[in-house]
Amino acid sequence: MSDALHAPDAACLNCGHALALPGCFCPQCGQAPAHRLSTAHVLHEILHVFTHADKGIFAFIPQVLLHPGALVADYLAGRRKRHFNPFQFLLLLVGFVTLLAKRLHYYDAVGDYVLHLMRARHVPPVLLARVATYFHGLGTYFNVWWLALLPLHALVAWAVYGRRPVRLNYAESVLVQVVVGCAFQLWLLVALPLLMLLGRFPGASTAYLQGAVTVAYLVLVGRRGLGLSWPGALWRAVLAGALAGAINYYINSAAFGWYVFGQH
């Protein structure tokens, strides 16, 4: 089998298209010149599947943290090839944060705090057990829960930035929220260990962090990416951040209330 790869061949090994020179790039299907698999090649392919590291995932991190406005401007203008895919980056990042939070038992700590408050109110043991189960499940499926809220946050951004002078459509609003979400998840990777180490109030600390990051990065995106004035970028960011925070609060409260009390 390996001898076939070394033998001259005037046809593409993938689609059979005739090639000008044996072993050259196929213009029909895009197949690169074939070579015998090596350990280095396999390791590269595995890394490529998860990160596309050869397209700049590590260079993308400072872009998100320091230049979110330029990143959004490039994407809206069609200059996308130079950047790592922000949608894929967010999926990877939320997965890492979920694993970290579970490893640190962060949401279990949130549940312990809520249990402490509810025991003081003499809540029945069956409900206390549901509280513990709820927060354990939240930690396990944080990535699913957080991503499920993203379309609603994008709807808020569309309502705020879909009018003059910006006029973003819904898909572009999703992009804005994805970039802001990437920044928040990066900060969360650093904040979670620090919050647990310092013993800060669990739950509220990350909520405050999300609110602060959302407003700050929407200001940067509005100013540098959408061409708004500083005052225009600020009031829109505060409005969008407040509405997104309200959505988070009420949906989380409703889900908690239904799971703990609604089945009693």
Automatic annotation (TrEMBL):
InterPro entries noted in UniProt: DUF3667
Presence of keyword Transmembrane: yes
Keyword Transcription regulation: no
Transmembrane segments: 57-77, 89-107, 144-162, 174-195, 201-221, 233-251
Keywords: Membrane, Transmembrane, Transmembrane helix
Protein name: DUF3667 domain-containing protein
Protein source organism: Hymenobacter properus
Upper classification of the organism: Bacteria, Pseudomonadati, Bacteroidota, Cytophagia, Cytophagales
